[in-house]
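<instruction>
Derive structure tokens from the sequence
<entry> Chain with its tokenised backbone below:
===
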Amino acid sequence: MPNILGSGSIPDSIGNLTSVSYIHFGNNMLSGTIPATLANLKTLTEVHFENNFLVGSLPDLGQLTLLRRAYFASNSLSGPIPSSIGQLSELLDINLSSNGLSGSIPDSICNLQKLWYFFAFRNSLTGSIPSCTGNMTTLSQIQVFTNYLTGPIPDSIGQLNNLLMAHFAINDISGTIPEGLCNATSLSYLYLYGNALSGSIPGCIGQMTKLSDLELFANQLTGTIPAGLWNARNLAYLIISGNKLEGTISDSLGNLSHLRTLQVSDNQLSGSIPSTIGKLDVLETVYFYNNLFSGTLPESVFTLPRLSILALYNNRFTGTLSPLIGQAQRLKNFQLYQNQFYGSIPAEIGQISTLRYFYAHGNAFSGTIPDSIGNLGVLEQLYLSNNQLEGTIPASINNLSKLTVLHAGTNRFSGTLPDISNLTDLSYLYLGYNGLEGAFPDISNLLNLKYLLIYGNAFTGTFPNEWTTLTKMQQISASNNRFEGTIPNNIGNLPLTYLAIDQNLLTGTIPASFGNLSALQTLFLSTNKLSSTLPPELGGMTAIGFLILVALILFIAIYGYDNPIGC
């Protein structure tokens, strides 16, 4: 029976089609329940009800002994998997995924001696994986991820010599990874992530010569990375992040010549990165962050021809960045913040035309920002704060037209801030705690700017009126500069939540438009030369939680000091 493009429910009379062998009602808009009369179709070999809006329970199909394929995925079916499933002796594959099925996987499933594929992912199944699973010797794929399964991984799975994929992720499976699993020598894809597995990674995994994808992240695994793992030479994806692993990365890492993704982040690993990483010519993604790694970064990592993501942050790496960084021609995301790197940022970084994210904050980099930074035409986020960088910010930074974040505070920059009017995508500008001086450049083109944080510098000139035209602005922090003149009257038109312009040389009155700042939570105006008159419109600042206002004349009248202060 061909696929129909319709809606409505399936009639009970379908049970009268006693000679039909094939039903395909998939990918429609059918609703209601699956009639129990379906069990009358003794000649049925294939049934498709996937991708509809069917509800209710799975019918008892135990009498359909010729059934070879059954697809019920992506509906809203509920209730248990009938134990009569074990009577379907000819069944080759069954897909029950993406429903609301509950209860346990019946042990009777182990009677299905011809089954190739069992898919029951994204349901609400409980209980454990049947210990007899190893009896299904023809099984090629078992996918039961995203359920509420508990208990251990059956050791008998190692008996499945035809098993290509075991996907048990995102459950609450506990216990250790059984050694017997290593006997499943055809296994190419093993997904155990997002469970409660403990103990060590079996060293025998290296015997699984066809293993391509090993994902064990987000468990509670302990111990070291076993030496045998580095013998799994067909591994393309090794993802063991988010455990409690310790020890070092072996030089034998270089054996994994097919490796594309290496993720060992969020563990307690230590030691240095072996230089043999440079042998992994197809490696694209490297996550070493949130560990205890130390030592220098091997320059061979920058020679990897396909490297796209290199995340090293929150470790103890030291040393300088090699000029070979310029050879990382496919690098898009380089994160090395919160380490102990020092020395200058190599000018060769400007050769990485693909770089979109460069996070180098929280290190001890010194020297100047290289002019070549302006060659990074697709750079979106640049984090350089909390280093020891000095000199002027290069004018070439205005070439970074895709930049959304410029984070360069807490350094030793001096001189004037160059023209940045081309940075029209910029939403976050942080230059606080530097030695920048002179007039602040015109930023009236930066219509996407939300955060302007330039406190702790020596900017001069009148308070920039064009700031009040940046209608997305949420925070202005320009404290401790030398801005003078009056606060623009139309500042109240901005959607500000934070305004700090204290410790400047501002004069005049507090604008009545401050009363329009209904979202404002924090206001600092102290230590200026503002009038003491407080406009009555300030009553409109309903969201403000912490208010420091300068009232110079009032303060002098009461205390007799010629020093403005917040009140």
User: Anything to note?
Assistant: The first strand starts at residue 7 and ends at 9.
